[in-house]
Design a protein that fits this description.
150 residues; alpha/beta; seven-stranded mixed β-sheet; 5 helices; 7 strands; 29% helix; 27% strand; globular
């Protein structure tokens, strides 16, 4: 497969993180949305992702919102809405807003458009070892769990 793209973003807790360095050599579940209206689909993944949001866990999880660089001027509207939706303190440092060339980010991952969210398992070296897209279902969860257990 391919490597997770290099990017820098701010968590809704206010921490700046660089990726894939912030994966810190751990297997990581990365849920990646490209539009604020992907939130309902992201929410379907919350029960699956939550165990990986615990700081210090051997396998970790991050939820990314990848927005075009131009959207940065609207961050004062976007970010409070997301902060209000994420009430669990432990999860706040795992929700990352990235303002970047979203089209280039998607191209690196061979994602043709921003119509759906993408979900990846990234190994400790930053390589993507499994991927799916869309809302959570049991089959997708079972497939990704095979890679998260290693």
């Amino acid at each position: 497969m391919s490597a997770f793209p290099s990017c820098t973003g701010d968590t809704i807790a206010g921490t700046t993180r660089a990726f894939p360095a912030s994966f810190a050599g751990k297997t990581t579940l990365a849920v990646v949305g490209f539009k604020p209206d992907h939130a309902p689909k992201v929410m379907t993944w919350v029960p699956f992702v939550t165990p990986y949001l615990t700081p210090g866990a051997a396998t970790q999880g991050f939820v990314f919102l990848i927005l075009p660089s131009q959207a940065k001027m609207m961050r004062k509207m976007i970010e409070p809405t997301i902060r209000a939706a994420v009430t669990e303190p432990a999860a706040r440092d795992s929700v990352v807003l990235v303002y970047t060339d979203a089209k280039a980010f998607r191209a690196t991952l061979a994602i043709p458009d921003d119509n759906d969210l993408a979900v990846f398992v990234v190994d400790g070296a930053g390589e993507i070892v499994a991927r799916t897209s869309g809302s959570f279902d049991a089959a997708k969860g079972a497939e990704l769990a095979r890679f998260l257990a290693t």
